[in-house]
Here is the input.
Amino acid sequence: MNIENIKALAEIASLYGLTALEVADGETRIRIERGTGQPSRQEPGALPTPAAPGPATGTGPDAALPVDFNRLIEVKSPLVGVFYSAPSPDSETFVSIGSQVKKGDVLCIIETMKLMNDITAEHDGEIVDICIKNGDIAEYGQVLFKMY
Here is the structure.
């Protein structure tokens, strides 16, 4: 993550009146927190729109886009077991933050009593957070991924 990405995250947090924003990119995790000052007055549910893109948002392919956090989908574990982010230790992960997934794509494996259970996407979308580490125990109903 470079300084422009961090500036864009800070701008998003400020623009939407968020008090905290956490993003993970591989092993890098960034958490931005700010005081609980009053955000600008708006109608309930309305998203603010910036007057013009600033240097942190830009207009290129790496530009920060507004995210509607009300549309986040939580992918929860349907069973208890060991979470695996890849089909084998030498393989690449099924998904990472920023991955575009289609309904039915495998997101991870949960191992229960030596049975490997594929956990698949129930919706098309983009992975925005991975809430569990490879090899950790997933509890029933625990949030594994957030996507929109």
Residues 87 and 107 are 10 Å apart (CA to CA). The longest strand covers residues 106-112.
